[in-house]
UniProtKB/TrEMBL annotation:
Residues 25-138 form the Xaa-Pro dipeptidyl-peptidase-like domain. This is Alpha/beta hydrolase. The keyword Hydrolase applies. It comes from Acetobacter fallax. Residues 11-20 have a biased composition (Basic and acidic residues). Residues 1-20 are annotated as: Disordered. The lineage of its organism: Bacteria, Pseudomonadati, Pseudomonadota, Alphaproteobacteria, Acetobacterales.
Length: 221
């Protein structure tokens, strides 16, 4: 799990990167929760998703956004954090110019940043959003959403209430060629204290299914 430092738009950013032994392996970028509320790349759910992609053979990175850990700069209200995510993606793509696919996975605030990045990078092929803060941020920018993905909500989450996430999912599912795999963990609150394994199982199930379908579709062309 090598430590990496790479150039961000507001100074150097700190990350952890696993390089797959598979040639042209798919890539995954994992984004942490809100930096002003203790969110770092070592967050338990963020780390669990990182290890899950590693286990599936991906080259995967998690990183600290500006002002977090050893990353330079300071919190920028989400705008600069989107640029940080783009810089992390640029670094991974430079190291892996022939990657077979590209996934983003975000938790809480990281889910918001990840979905913003999705709209800016057409090469992204899949996404995971855990507890996206749909009641606090406007996700109307997902119009149209470029592809389907996995969205996870906690039934007892007061910070990212399930009804607001459900409303977002319903809106996305009305869009052409978009199908959101929506999973609710009834007993989970915002920190998913006892549901990390469930998050990992859902992620691996969704990603594996999508990757198999994509391989079959490419083979049929």
């Amino acid at each position: 799990m090598p430590e990496v430092m790479f150039a961000g738009p507001d100074g150097r950013l700190e990350g952890r990167y696993h390089h797959s032994s598979e040639p042209n392996a798919p890539l995954a970028l994992v984004l942490h929760p809100h930096p002003l509320h203790g969110g770092t790349m070592n967050n338990r759910i963020t780390y669990a998703m990182y290890r899950s992609f590693e286990k599936m053979g991906f080259s995967v990175m998690r990183y600290n956004s500006r002002g977090v850990g050893r990353s330079q700069g300071r919190y920028d209200g989400g705008i600069g954090e989107i640029s940080d995510a783009a810089a992390a993606l640029d670094w991974m793509q430079a190291v892996n110019p022939n990657a077979g696919a590209l996934w983003i996975a975000g938790y809480s605030f990281g889910a918001f940043v990840g979905m913003q990045l999705l709209m800016r990078r057409p090469e992204i092929t899949g996404w995971i959003s855990v507890a996206p803060p749909a009641a606090h941020y406007d996700f109307g920018f997902l119009a149209p959403c470029p592809c389907g993905g996995l969205m996870i909500a906690g039934g007892k989450d007061d910070l990212a209430p399930e009804p607001a996430i459900h409303k977002l999912v319903d809106k996305l599912n009305t869009q052409k060629n978009v199908q959101v795999d929506y999973r609710i963990f009834p007993e989970a609150d915002h920190i998913f204290a006892k549901q990390a394994d469930q998050v990992v199982e859902a992620l691996e199930d969704h990603v594996t299914t999508k990757m198999v379908r994509r391989t079959m579709a490419l083979a049929a062309d």
